[in-house]
Amino acid sequence: MSFGDPNNPYGQPPQQPQAGPGYGYPQQPGQPAQPGYGYPSAPPVGQPYGGGYVPTQMPGITRAAQILLGVIALAHVIIAAVYGVALAQWDESMAEADLTAEAEQYADLGKGVIVFFAGLAAVFAILGLVLLLQYAKGGSSVRVCSIVYASFAIVSGLFALAIYLLGLVIWVVSILVIVFCAKRASTEWFRRPRY
């Protein structure tokens, strides 16, 4: 079989590319530099990057998610304060009541539940604050953690319904944070290259 035979399974040998300026060849004055050698450069601002554009400022929807995350954290500070006041009132009412030893054990159990919920609300407030501060420089993990945090805030809103409908506010704001963080503009903001 020859190389010109159309039935040859190996086909013709590949042609060698023409040697030209680039790697190993000196650049001629007035010629642009050849791309592909050395380290890759960052895409210019406003140019396509992975299907979208490289944002230079935080998009409005992402800024709204950040602000609403702050609202959730503030709501948990309020919840922790309400539980703290209830704890102080609990001690006063237990001191005034004349309880038996068995009733005092149940009272201590109720006090433990209040302390647990107050601590949980304080931890939620701190986590919200940490996430809030990471929005400007954080990566995709901040977006995912914000969605998870807002999901847990929906559950914690159940326990706050009795506090002046604060739980309802937490539900609405948490759902908005989840929706805003799932938007494409937020995804592109958290996936942007950081140099």
From TrEMBL:
Biased composition range(s): Low complexity: 17-40
Residue spans crossing the bilayer: 67-90, 110-132, 168-185
Region annotated Disordered, chain positions: 1-41
Keywords recorded for this protein, A-Z: Membrane, Transmembrane, Transmembrane helix
Name assigned to this protein: Integral membrane protein
